[in-house]
Amino acid sequence: MKKLLLIIASALLLLTGCQDAHATVNNPNEELVKVGDTSITKGEVYTNLLVNFGSYYVVADVTEKVVNAEIETTDEIEKEVQEQIESNKSMYGENWEYFLNSYGYKTEEEFKNSIVLGLKLNELTKKYVYENWDELIVQYNPKKAIVLSFYDADSANAALVELKNGVDSQEVATAYNSNSVGTPEIITSQSAYSSEVMSVINTASTSDDYAMIPSNDNLTTYIIKVLETDPNNIQDEIATTLSSYESIANESDAYYFKKYKFTIYDKTLYDNMVSSYSNYVVQK
Q1: Do 91 and 26 reside in the same domain of the chain?
Q2: pLDDT in tens, the chain (284 residues)
Q3: Total domain count for the chain?
């Protein structure tokens, strides 16, 4: 079945003509299966697979080609792949082969290739962020900050004293039962903090000390320290954060599909793509 689906995808990618054309299969009336008086033809199977799976496999196939054209398989990627494989082998032990088969991988090499593709796809989204840096920085307004939250105001007050005395924020978070771990993070306009917290982050200077603010729900007290406001000083951290956003990943997909002039000529496929994968439909 997988081979049939890949054949469909390849055929549709090679199809030329007007947008209202329809891809066809040779000998569509040839019987493939017959049960009693009912037969299923090659054309019927082709149409069913095209309608139900064609869009998915075309997107997957084109994505792989775009990723490989834009991103090299670096030593860092190879190292990460090997680490993931070893981690999974350690986890599944003697059930390793069963794990591979249960997820549809015939060999370890197929599993490796899927990891490589995933890592390269992440790198492609990061590349999109860098290529559209100025626009995205204006849109997402990223900052680097530490945000600690506490349900107990007394704990928050005690934690603030420790922080101002130079105690590590992660140690303070643990010692005073913070709801957060106390590690620095990239905060953007899409971060899920209250308007009060975001207001402090967006107006504070890196020279400011830790600030404490109550939440508008009167239940949570926040302690905030802004560490960096210049995005050019934390480019990789920002790119990693932004590339994890689904909205940016979708923008990246559309950006590179358009760059490579992805065009759909089959009308059935086009309609299915508009319905299920509209962000990939970039042709005019």
Answers
A1: yes
A2: 444 444 444 444 444 344 455 556 666 666 666 666 676 665 655 565 556 556 778 888 889 999 999 999 999 999 999 999 999 999 999 899 999 998 888 999 999 999 999 999 999 999 999 999 999 999 999 999 999 999 988 999 999 999 999 999 999 999 999 999 999 999 999 998 988 899 999 999 998 999 998 867 778 899 999 999 999 999 999 999 999 999 999 999 999 999 999 888 878 778 888 888 888 888 87
A3: 2
- In sequence order, the 6+-apart residues with CB closer than 8 A to the CB of 184 are 144, 145, 146, 227
Which of 170, 126, 171 shows the shortest CA–CA distance to 146?
Answer: 170
3-state secondary structure of 41: strand
For 120, the domain range is 2-132+243-280
The answer on 153 and 127 residing in a single domain is: no
Structure tokens at 92: 């599944």
Residue 74 lies in a domain: yes
| CB-based contact 252:123 (threshold 8 Å) | no
Cross-strand bridge partners of residue 38: 35
Q: For the stretch 25-41, what's the b/e string if a residue is b when 16 or more beta carbons lie within 10 angstroms of its beta carbon? A: beeeeeeeeeeeeeeeb
Nearest in space to 210 (alpha carbons), one of 140, 114, 145, 132: 145
pTM of the model: 0.78
Token reading at 231 = 């995005």
